[in-house]
Each structure stands twice: as structure tokens, then as C-alpha cells.
Amino acid sequence: MKAIIIEDERDLAELLAFNLEKNGWQTVIALDGKSGLEAVTTELPDLVILDLMLPEMDGIEVCRNLRRQEKTTAIPVIIVTAKGEEIDRVVGFEVGADDYLVKPFSFRELLLRINAILRRTTSVQQKGKALIRGSLALDLDRHVVTIKDEEINLTVTEFKLLQSLAERTGRMQGREQLLRDVWGYNSNADTRTVDTHITRLRSKLGDAGEIIHTVRGFGYKLEVE
After folding, report:
1. Using alpha carbons only, what angle is made at residue 208 by residues 204 and 211, rounded to the nearest 5 degrees?
2. If one looks up domain 2-121 in CATH, what number appears?
3. Which of 3-29 are b and which e, b meaning 16 or more Cβ less than 10 Å from the residue's Cβ?
4. For the domain with range 127-222, which CATH number is right: 1.10.1520.10, 1.10.10.10, 3.40.50.920, 1.10.580.10?
5. SS3 at position 78
6. Side-chain half-sphere of 204: how many Cα atoms within 13 Å?
7. Most buried residue, 57, 96, 129, 189, by most Cβ within 10 Å?
8. Cα–Cα distance between 57 and 35 in angstroms, integer?
9. What is the pLDDT of residue 126?
10. How many angstroms from the chain centroid is the CA of residue 211?
């Protein structure tokens, strides 16, 4: 497993690399956004740890570029930053980050988040079946969503969120439940995390996204006529 750490604080980047390597990871460090983006597109790692405030190119633009490219769109991205305001979190999720940690944080917490993302990836890859919901088709073996045979690029988290809704079609799912099922850990994370990912998911699905219904004051459900 390989992780690319895009962080301009060299001491922190090296500390993260050291701890990841103790847990069996290979690591690459990039100290600015531009070289980090180049490293990800070249190395195609299993994970990106991304700071927001970077020289050359900020983390938001790096993440946006990764999500635009087919070969990097599904690579998990965890944002680590000193910017902890709600708007910063929302923007991070809107451009496609899978998770968001505010500095200072413990490596144990980061490792929990990483393991949760890896479980999402594994659960997607291990199931060799398809789910058909209206015009949507989810190939759980290949991690591919199609709408009328047109492939839609989703991140690992977006795919897992859609899968969770599709597997419980017609059933209401609370935001807290989705945080547990999709993000894979119990936390005090703002449920706006779920709302932001739902908004992004609906946008990617276009008209087909209308089958994801908001249950006011509770959460969401997927419903097909």
C-alpha cells in the first residue's frame, strides 16, 4: 500500500511518513500542491493525505484536479488542515475529499480514518454482484455506476453511500446511521458531512439523482417508482 503525503510542513510530513511506514505503508512526500498533484497522477497511490494551505497550488485545487481525472478520481483523499471552520469542511467535501481532520490530531485518529476508508474500498471490491435501481446500475465487483450504459465517475465514499442507500431501497436512513455505515466509525462528526456528499452525489447522477429523497429531520432514502 502506498500513500502520498502532500504537506508543506516538512517535520509533520516526515512524522506522518514515519508512522505510516511503521504500519506497513510505502510513502512519498510532496511539499507543495503542484508537485503533489504530479506525484499522485504518476504514482497512482492507494491514499492521499492532503493539506489545504499549500504553496504553488492549494489543497482544494489539488483535490478538484484529482477528481476530474478518470485515473485518479477514485483514489481516497483525507484532508488534514488547521482550517476547522464548518465552511472549510463543506468546501473540502464538495470538491471530493473522503474525510477531513483538523490539526492538531493524533496519529491514532488518522489511522482509524484510513482503516475506515480501506474497509469501504474492500467491501466494494469483495461483492461480485450488481444492483439495479431505476436507470442506475451499480456493479459492485468493478466499482462502477452506469446510467443508461453511461459510466459515472464516483469516489469510493460516494459509491459506498449510493450502495448503502440502494441496498436499503425504500427504507429511511438517518444521518448518524449513514456516518457509521459509510464512514465506518462512530464519531462526533458533523452530519453536514452526509448532506454535502448527498448533494455532490445527486449532482453527479443528474436526473437519476432524483430517486434519492430527503426525509426532513431524519436523513435520506432511495426510492424507485
Report:
1. 115
2. 3.40.50.2300
3. bbbbbbeeeebeebbeebeeeebebbb
4. 1.10.10.10
5. strand
6. 24
7. 96
8. 9
9. 46
10. 22
Residue pair 144/151 in contact (Cβ under 8 Å)? The answer is: yes
pLDDT band at 124 (very low <50, low <70, confident <90, very high): very low
Residue whose C-alpha is closest to residue 158's, from 220, 221, 204, 100: 204
Q: What global pTM score does this model have?
A: 0.67
Q: CA torsion sign, 125 to 205 to 223 to 161?
A: positive
Q: Whole-angstrom Cα distance, residue 57 to residue 12? A: 19
What number of other Cβ atoms are within 10 A of residue 181's Cβ? 17
Residue 34 has φ and ψ, to the nearest 5°, of -65, -50
Q: Where are the domains of the chain?
A: 2-121, 127-222
Question: Average pLDDT for residues 103-112, to the nearest whole number?
Answer: 90
CA–CA dist 218, 16 (Å, integer):
37
Residue whose entry in the numeric block shows the C-alpha cell 453536514: 192
Q: Is 100 helix (H, G, I), strand (E, B) or coil?
A: strand
What element of type H or E holds 6? strand 2-6
- Give yes or no for a contact between 42 and 48, defined as CB atoms under 8 angstroms apart: no
Q: CA 109 to CA 44: how far, in whole Å?
A: 24
pLDDT surpassing 60 at residue 187: no
Nearest to 139 by CA among 129, 154, 149: 129
